[in-house]
Amino acid sequence: MHIENMLIYLGGVLMKKYMSFNACCLVIFISAGNVFAQSGFTGQQGFSGQPEFGFTGPSQTGTFVQSFSVITASEARNLPHDSWVVLTGNIVNMLPGGRQYTFRDATGDIAVDIGPKEWRGLSVDMSDKVDIYGEIKFHRGLFHIKVHAISGTGRVNRFPGQPVTVTAPITINEAVNLPHDSWVVLRGNIVSSLFSGHTRPVGPGRGHVNNNYLFRDASGEILVDIGPKEWRGLSIGVSDNVEIYGEIKNNRGQIHVKVHAIRTGA
Fold first, then answer.
1. How many CB atoms lie within 10 A of CB 178?
2. Residue at 136 is within a domain
3. What confidence category does residue 266 fall into, taking pLDDT thresholds of 50, 70 and 90?
4. Going by C-beta distance under 8 Å and a sequence separation of 6 or more, which residues neighbour residue 214?
5. Domain count of the chain?
6. 138 is a domain residue
7. Contact 134/79 with Cβ under 8 angstroms?
8. Per-residue confidence (pLDDT) for residue 66, from 0 to 100
9. Helix (H, G, I), strand (E, B), or coil: what is residue 259?
10. E strands present in the chain
């Protein structure tokens, strides 16, 4: 009987330890499960809804500014990144790098970035008055204007295939006969958004947006490429008259306009 009691006692102790061990394992397993459940992507899955860019305009308000009238260098300094501006003044020197210049008007100096393509055959010196069309850029606290087009009183060098700068509105029929990379202003209506396999991401979790649209005036139609940034807060419909500012692109005979700025009420 004594031995029997001893065996029962030892069996009870072992059972308690086994149950305690299982309970600990269960706690560890549940805790680990909670940790794994909280790791990785826990937000919204996929893309919901349609991006508010493109033909109906982007949803941002107050992010960008567009100025199609001439402003001063001093006023330009106070505008947000990527704002569209037009300035009149003089280019007074070249800065290190080969494409950075000092632009000056009565209110001060600012750095401007003008690539070889953007000159489009124009040569100017310090005494020549120029108009520059471009975007405000802030990079690591430094301010400059990325120039997309420049016109002025300097000398224009012409040779076959030389891109030209046209700053007054022309028709689509006239635009399609200009060389690749020519700067144009067109006036008309955006009548539809076109599907293309080449879409660009709007942002994390926001899907993709198509940048291709059909632009029409009295002389015909042309494909235009308007990225999310270039809308700068505009929202337009098919009945809205607009002016687009951009470059003629000729890709193996397929002509379109890469739009850098757009305005309504034209």
1. 18
2. yes
3. low
4. 190, 191, 192, 193, 194, 221, 222, 223, 224
5. 2
6. yes
7. no
8. 73
9. strand
10. 66-71, 84-94, 100-105, 108-113, 122-123, 130-139, 142-152, 155-156, 165-170, 183-193, 200-201, 208-209, 212-217, 220-225, 242-251, 254-264
The pTM for the full model equals: 0.72
Residue 175 lies in a domain: yes
pLDDT tens figures, 67-98: 788 999 999 999 999 999 999 999 999 988 77
More confident residue, 244 or 45: 244
What is the domain-level CATH number for residue 123?
A: 2.40.50.200
CB-based contacts of 266, cutoff 8 Å, min separation 6: 169, 187, 241, 242, 243
Is there a single domain that holds both residue 209 and residue 150? no
- pLDDT at residue number 13: 45
Looking at the structure, do residues 144 and 169 belong to the same domain, yes or no? no
**Alpha helices in the chain, H assignment, sequence order:** 2-37, 73-76, 116-119, 172-175, 228-231
Domain closes at, from 156, 176, 207: 156
- Who wins on pLDDT, 226 or 58? 226
pLDDT, tens only, 44-71: 222 233 333 334 433 334 456 677 889 9
Token representation of residue 56: 């109906």
Asked whether the beta carbons of 235 and 56 are under 8 A apart, the reply is yes
Q: What are phi and psi of 63, to 5 degrees?
A: -85, -40
Domain that holds residue 114: 66-156
- Residue at 16 is within a domain: no
